[in-house]
Design brief:
Helix content: 40-55%
Number of strands: 9
Shape: elongated
Number of helices: 11
Distance between the termini: 74 Å
Radius of gyration: 29 Å
Order of helices and strands: HEEEEHHHEHEHHEHEHHEH
Structural class: alpha/beta
């Protein structure tokens, strides 16, 4: 587009508004911010007066650009959350909604040092008794990382096995490889799946592929690291060795999460009813 075309478009977008005025230099000024809406340039050896953005219009455009980028970023985050957290109950599990404990503080440090954890392929083995808050902590980590635009998938071995066995159109290898597009993979409730050669082979394939990808893994389990080390089962030992090579064990020793959540609901109900 030639200069005349550019000037025509600029003139249309910079049409004088109520309050605009001509300054002593002969240029048009904005009546709001009192900065020039015109400027002088030399083009093809001749002086020309062209339209330019005054300060308030420039600020308005910059704000509109920031708003658009924020909407795009928020849309991306929501898409990541839909893809990565399929259990909708986990969406409310965040650090901001939680009572801080030493265990959750350790989990928050993992998020805070995510780049280092990712680069070193360092995951977590969150272990402890039933109901202590392992799944809650893993969901808090997932939601916090997704808030920063990082792809995370939260699933479990029983869900994966059920998907593979219930959908015969799935290509097993492609399905398992699809997990690698997520920067972090969270596998909940390890150890509750049925015992069979097929299940153990699938579990090992998932963990081994994750290891080869160089991407971190978080596992929650009721098993203790000591029980993993002392097993005499060769099939299980292959799996446990790989997990312990990839994941730092962190014990969940807080008040049982489900019991605490139930107590909160009861107190809320009492405050309403009584």
């Amino acid at each position: 587009m030639n200069l005349d075309g550019v000037m025509e478009r600029a003139a249309h977008s910079n049409a004088p508004n109520t309050g605009d005025y001509t300054g002593q230099d002969g240029l048009l000024y904005c009546g709001k911010c009192h900065t020039p809406k015109q400027c002088r340039i030399e083009f093809d050896g001749k002086p020309r007066v062209v339209f330019c953005m005054c300060a308030c219009k420039k600020q308005r455009q910059e704000q509109e650009q920031q708003d658009m980028e924020q909407r795009e970023r928020q849309g991306k985050i929501e898409q990541l959350r839909v893809q990565g957290i399929q259990d909708k109950q986990l969406l409310a599990h965040t650090f901001g909604n939680s009572q801080q404990t030493p265990f959750l503080t350790q989990c928050w440090k993992y998020v805070n040092h995510w780049r280092q954890m990712r680069d070193n392929n360092t995951g977590l083995l969150l272990w402890g008794d039933v109901g202590c808050g392992k799944s809650h902590a893993a969901a808090c980590i997932a939601n916090a990382l997704i808030d920063h635009g990082i792809p995370v998938l939260v699933t479990s071995f029983p869900k994966i096995i059920a998907e593979l066995q219930g959908n015969y159109q799935i290509n097993r290898n492609e399905y398992l490889r699809s997990f690698q597009r997520f920067s972090l993979l969270v596998l909940d409730d390890f150890g509750v799946e049925r015992n069979s050669d097929y299940v153990f082979e699938t579990i090992f394939s998932i963990i081994d592929e994750r290891y080869k990808s160089g991407k971190p893994l978080i596992i929650t389990t009721n098993l203790t690291p000591d029980a993993m080390r002392r097993t005499n089962d060769i099939v299980r030992q292959r799996i446990y060795d790989r997990i312990q090579e990839m994941c730092i064990p962190v014990r969940c020793s807080t008040q049982p999460w489900r019991r605490h959540a139930a107590a909160q609901k009861i107190e809320q109900a009492k405050s309403v009813l009584l």
